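Throughout our pipeline, every protein is held as a single compact record rather than as scattered files. This encoding replaces a full spatial description with a residue-level series of whole-number codes. The remainder of this section carries one protein's record, kept here as part of the documentation.
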Amino acid sequence: MLAHVTERLRGREKVILVHGNADMDAIGSAYALAECFPPARIYAPGGLDRISRMVTEKLGIDVKESCDAGDHELIVVVDTSSPDQIEGDIDIPDGSLVIDHHKPTGKWSSMDLICDDARAACSEIIWNIVKDCPDIGRNVYLALLGGMITDTGHLQFANAATLRSFSEIMERGGLEMDEVLSLMKMEQSMSERSAVVKCMGRSRFERVGDMLVAVSLSGSFEASCCKGLLSAGADVAFVASQRDDVFRISSRATQEMVRRGIHLGDMLSDLGAETYTDGGGHGAAAGISGIGDAEAMLNICVKRTMDEFRRIKSGSEPV
């Protein structure tokens, strides 16, 4: 598989695309490919999240938000489970290379898909692709480690394979842990802190046994609001925003709930398929967005989580 991927990447002029509001895993993956297999341009047509924007500035990573795919020899998409997550009217031709670690949605069926959903971060897959390239720059090592840290909740949700890759990159790059953490350190802004506090005041919760699911609405910082609800005691949290007729929901679960059988990525992927929206992610962190009513979608999320709680309480196997 790796030989096939490196053969496609080597020497071709390429565009590397990432999903909207691109996180550090997406940017780290794209940057490593661009540096190790030039020539390449990185496009994030849906913009960057706050952490990845800060890191791109620190490391001098050139990311274009206005996308012109043009007549390049190859289009590569990384860390993106569905073409619906690529914002803008971008023509991705059949046979383009897609490298991902999310549960397959079936929406890349006409592409050359390389997917390993056992990986906690796409950066792990990319590391296996680039690790034998000569003269890997220090910033590439940092970017890949940043991707792994953010997608595992600062290694909280890392598995043994992630830690092996992480250790190997640190050793190869001659890096210390404090260098990686300081790269992504960002103080909460007043607007983020305010959003989390407001979200807590609007929240409601349901309970089955010792398990709590909390939901709320927010105008921004949905992921941070989810983390705030978990810190307050929820086991699973959903936070939604509504802009005109478009909704977006972020969700988080504790690792203990994942061990007990909750998988938010599967839940929101199934819900997305049923409602013609775009959902998916990982066991402990997932999202869904599309046309619809945020409150109604939150209610569905609560119902499905409660069903899972009841299954866990009864000791039944996952359906």
Notes: The radius of gyration is 19 Å.
